[in-house]
Amino acid sequence: MIQLQNLTMSYALEHDRLEVLSGVDLDIADGETVAIIGPSGSGKTTLLLLLAGLEQPQDGSIRLDGLPLQEMDADALADLRRDRLGIVFQSFHLVPSLTALGNVALPLEIAGHDDALERARQMLRRVGLAERQRHYPSQLSGGEQQRVAIARALVHSPGLLLADEPTGNLDLKTGALIIDILFELNQATGSTLVLVTHDEVIARRCQRVLRLQQGKLIADPDHALSA
Hints:
36% of the residues lie in helices and 26% in strands. The protein has helices spanning 44-51, 74-84, 100-110, 116-126, 142-154, 172-189, 200-203, 221-226, and strands at residues 2-12, 17-28, 33-37, 59-64, 67-68, 85-88, 160-164, 192-196, 208-213, 216-219. Helix 3 packs parallel to helix 5 (142-154) and helix 5 runs parallel beside helix 6 (172-189). The radius of gyration is 18 Å and the shape is globular. It starts with a strand and ends with a helix.
């Protein structure tokens, strides 16, 4: 599903450059669950942005299901994200003028699915928001908005789900529900899950745990010992 070769990414500072990723190599198989851990500022979110085609690396290559992201134009990348990726970032990016139902149905409607609203209702029920589907983002709590964003990311049963701290704004009970949904989707559809988290318990549910350290991805030794 994912092949990274010599991936390098840095950002310009006032008098220097900050190297976030340095020669990263990584293969992730179809259906695999992988957690990426590491301290704040280590490049975890940057890695997800690169995997989603939302940023371009300075060097190296990214292939998703055999497709070379660097060779795809903006329209092709947008189609890839719409049809095959589910993305959950810490910023909700909900459309303020749409209800919860409208936000979740939006990617299906753009793709031309006639059953968009019904599928969106089903997903909102799964994340515990059946009674809030007609509310607008401004009428929802932060945790509820996060659940809407997660429902939108899952509604088209993506082959690859990228999640950046998906439970960061949720209470423990709701967070556990969301994590269960992510892993249920993986089991039911054979989707691939790449999960960035600070929560060691959540990370241990994945088949592999990788740690970003000094710009490199390394297998987490604690997970290897417990596996």
